[in-house]
Specification:
Blueprint: E1 4-17, E2 27-39, E3 42-56, E4 62-63, H1 65-68, H2 71-81, H3 89-116, H4 129-155, H5 161-165, E5 168-172, H6 180-196, H7 198-211, H8 218-223, E6 225-229
Antiparallel strand pairs: 1-2, 2-3, 3-4, 5-6
Helix pairs in contact: 3-4, 4-6, 6-7
Length: 232
């Protein structure tokens, strides 16, 4: 039984007036054709954008936008669309999972390196057994997550590896590039949630994405940021 796959959907993004080459009608509808990932035949998120189309509302003939629309009409719409769509829940979730796997892997590498160097993070404290091992790993994982997010948000303009894969981008509340205060606040609070508990962080992320307006997580609210789909 196939439980996942893909499907194509057409989404309207604008309309206006033009001169149809087929019937000389004056009304058009601009749409984008996207390939969606489906689970149990339910479209969850966009895998990739296929193309834009223009449909005459009089004769229903379909055209390439570049052939029938002027640059002044078409380009501003497309440029505005590149950061107009708020990050899809499914995309944000899978991007988070990818970034988590990367930071867990880096944390294991750092822990292994510290072990080889005989460096004990908790040498000042009397902690023994499994709780000590877990606590050490959480400290390393929290630091790695903070540095990972801080570096990628700063030098890759709001895109971690997971966000790059799913074409997501973190911007400030106005839709512009984050400043360092946004980046620091967002990643500090996100790392704080990791320290409280990686599992708790995972469920807080999901719950806040579902119940908060405009799909904002708690660290989005603290950092005064939002995540948009980056279709450029």
């Amino acid at each position: 039984m196939i439980i996942f796959g893909s499907t194509t959907k057409v989404k309207k993004i604008d309309n206006g007036s033009f001169k149809c080459p087929n019937c000389y009608g004056q009304k058009y509808e601009l749409s984008e054709v996207n390939r969606y990932f489906t689970l149990f035949f339910i479209p969850l998120f966009i895998l990739r954008k296929i193309k834009d189309i223009v449909r005459c509302e009089i004769c229903n003939e379909v055209f390439n936008p570049e052939n029938v629309l002027s640059i002044s009409k078409y380009e501003p719409i497309i440029n505005n669309q590149s950061l107009k769509i708020i990050g899809n829940f499914g995309k944000r979730l899978f991007a988070f999972i990818i970034d988590s796997l990367i930071t867990i892997f880096l944390s294991f590498l750092l822990k292994k390196l510290l072990t080889l160097l005989n460096y004990d993070l908790l040498s000042r404290y009397r902690t023994h057994g499994d709780s000590s091992v877990f606590f050490k790993f959480i400290i390393i994982y929290t630091c790695i997550w903070f540095i990972y997010g801080l570096l990628f948000d700063t030098f890759f303009k709001g895109q971690t590896i997971g966000k790059m894969i799913f074409h997501l981008k973190v911007v400030n509340i106005d839709g512009n590039k984050m400043n360092f205060r946004n980046i620091l606040a967002r990643n500090f609070f996100k790392s704080l949630l990791v320290f409280i508990g990686a599992i708790l962080h995972f469920f807080i992320l999901i719950i806040s994405l579902i119940i908060k307006s405009r799909r904002k997580t708690i660290h989005d609210i603290i950092g005064n940021t939002n995540v948009f789909e980056n279709n450029r």
